[in-house]
Amino acid sequence: MASTWIKGLGTLAVLGAAGFGTFLFITAPQRQDPAVWANLGEPDLAHGREVFFAGGCASCHAPAGATGDARLVLSGGAPLKSDFGTFHAPNISSDPEGGIGAWTLAEFGDAMTRGVGRDGEHLYPSFPYGSYARMTPEDINDLYGFMKTLPASDAVAPAHELGFPFNQRVVLGGWKFLYYSDAPRVELADASDMVKRGQYLVEGPGHCGECHTPRNALGGFLAGQWLAGGPNPEGEGSIPNITPGSRSMGSWSEGDIVSYLETGFTPDYDSVGGSMVEVQKNMAELPAADREAIAAYLKAITAVQ
């Protein structure tokens, strides 16, 4: 009996090790094909600036409370509280040691679109690569080119404050397996070029769904609830529904949305508040046509009550 029991434990151990090995293989960090980042040419810095503001890079990576040109010093450190712990945005300035100034375009692009760090590690999805995955290689090339023109900082951001098991990056492979996708969030039949542009901005660099879509206990988006609002991921208050089914914004016209993104004022002359203040500042830097495209997309998607 004892030998049979021992053999059984040995079999379970082998099966467990094989299963864990399979998990590691399936969920290993996956970089882009290097050809994706080849032959993109010199970046368009003016367009890179637009992508920078569309992506909201300064909102997380600039020093807390920074204003004016100080928002372009991407020294990191800003805390992002969540149910999983507190994340601290890293230094992504042009400094070659403290920041990402020495990274190649491929390394930067893999972080942006695959959530893979320079050393091949999984990145936490507090960095919204699940949205940035929809960005074009050309936009990422222009963005990185612009970011390298910004001031350098040698500041070192604090380490993430995460408990077990969230402090084990290996579990992120499982999260990606369940929730990572570079496919469009919604299918829009016969969409106009303006709506398609809005979809790209909202679902991609704008990463609007990261706050405006409710999540399950593992941090994945709830199916059928795209942009329907819900609890604030940072734990205070709520994030509004911005679909046409919204009680507060469903009656807004496209022009109302465009004006809000440009000026920060609602149709009732209330002003933008909370974390949306930084987002609105970024949206105001975009070309008017992009704000119009965002509005067109938000009025075209399915209403969620």
TrEMBL record:
Q: Establish whether keyword Membrane is in the entry.
A: yes
What InterPro entries is this protein classified in? Cyt_c-like_dom, Cyt_c-like_dom_sf, Cytochrome_c-type_DH
Please name the GO terms that the record assigns under molecular function: electron transfer activity; heme binding; metal ion binding
Alphabetically sorted, this entry's keywords are: Heme, Iron, Membrane, Metal-binding, Transmembrane, Transmembrane helix
Under the heading Gene3D superfamilies, the entry gives: Cytochrome c-like domain (1.10.760.10)
Which positions fall inside the Cytochrome c domain?
Answer: 43-151, 193-302
Q: Does the keyword Heme apply?
A: yes
Q: Membrane-crossing residues?
A: 6-26
What is this protein's name?
Cytochrome c domain-containing protein
